[in-house]
Amino acid sequence: MSEATTKAEKGGGFFKMLGRIPGANILVPLLLACTINTFFPQVFALGSFTTAMTTGGTGALVGAFLVMVGTTISFESAPKAAVRGAIIIATKVVFCVALALIVQFALGDNLLGLSSMVILAACSGANNSLYAGLMGDYGTEVERGAVAVTTLVVGPPVTMIVLGAAGQAPLGWSLLGAVLPILLGIVLGNCFPSLKKTLSAGLPGIIILTFFAMGSTMTLSQIVQAGLPGILLGVICSVGGALVTVAADRATGGTGVAGAAISSCAGANVATPAAMASVCAERFGGAVLATATAQVAAAAIVTAILTPLITAYVYKRYHVEDAAEQQPTTA
After folding, report:
1. CA–CA dist 258, 88 (Å, integer)
2. Which of 7, 55, 72, 240 has its CA 20 to 30 A from that of 249?
3. Contact 144, 86 (CB under 8 A)
4. Which among 222, 219, 241 is positioned nearest to 150, based on CA atoms?
5. In whole angstroms, what is the distance from residue 307 CA to residue 23 CA?
6. Separation CA 20–CA 317 (nearest Å)
7. What is the DSSP letter of 107?
8. Which residues are CB-neighbours of 69 under 8 A, at least 6 positions away?
9. What's the maximum distance between 2 C-alpha atoms anywhere in the chain?
10. Alpha-carbon Rg of the chain, whole angstroms?
11. Helix 272-279 × helix 116-123 angle, to 10°
12. Is-above-0.70 flag for pTM?
């Protein structure tokens, strides 16, 4: 065996080992970029293509990612996908609203350092890029398409409505902008089979690039600044949320995988405390705003780690069980 062959096998063995990590194509690039941004942030500030494809290009990459996801969804599965998305996101919202109201009225608005506003800000919206990426690995066509509905609940509207800080937030054109890429992908994939083949083949690669870009906007210090309450918030969102959403998903005919994958905190929700402070500075501004922002940012990072692990576990557990149940019994 040649030396070159040996080196190639060793390299392949290393990447094969990384591939055994649940959600590796999401977690590894995200944590790698997060670590680089923590210790060498100047790398992503070099400008030109480096900045454009990292800190300055997250939105563009997510948009391209959603177009590719859309090409894998057929018209026949779209109604079922909408129903699946509505079930899991509605369950998630009901869970976080119920918990926030308990904290607000029964616990004096303090659950081990977490306020009702922070719980709503972190848990009401899911990281839809993470959801779509996990569905690319573990989900069915219907579950992948559900992201067109789950994107509707991102940012401060749920928090504003529940707390009544500014009344019901209007649904602007940004809502259409969030779902248009995946809708475009669905149309292109169904109308042009050759384009569907081309774009869907690039899905694994765009997942890696997208989550590297997302990681470049995060730092490990965000977890430290938020302390234990921020970490607890992420655990509540991922673990507590998954217990409810997985149960609801399976109870309504789903596999449970979509329910697990939706149990994350949206990166966009990190801006929710600032939105609340803009409408009620006396209650949510100043030190409250700084603490809440750090806690939600920490939750976004913690759930980016926990949610892929939970999803992989749910897939492994129920995929085996469901496959066994479908096997014909012998006399």
Report:
1. 7
2. 72
3. no
4. 241
5. 9
6. 16
7. S
8. 132, 135, 136, 144, 147, 182, 185, 203
9. 72
10. 20
11. 130
12. no
E strand intervals along the chain: none
pLDDT digits (tens, 9 = 90+) for 103-115: 888 888 889 888 8
Token output for 254: 């789903």
pLDDT digits (tens, 9 = 90+) for 24-78: 666 678 778 888 988 998 889 888 888 888 878 777 787 787 788 778 666 665 6
Q: Which of the residues in the chain have pLDDT under 50? A: 1-2, 4-9, 165-172, 174-175, 329-331
Q: Which amino acid is at 19?
A: G
Give the residue ranges of DSSP H helices in 107-146: 116-123, 128-138, 141-145
The DSSP string of 47-100 is -HHHHHTTTTTHHHHHHHHHHHHHHT--GGGHHHHHHHHHHHHHHHHHHHHHHH
Cβ contacts of 169 within 8 Å, gap of 6 or more: 156, 157, 160, 161
Task: Kindly tell me the sign of the dihedral angle through the C-alpha atoms of 307, 313, 316, 317.
Answer: negative
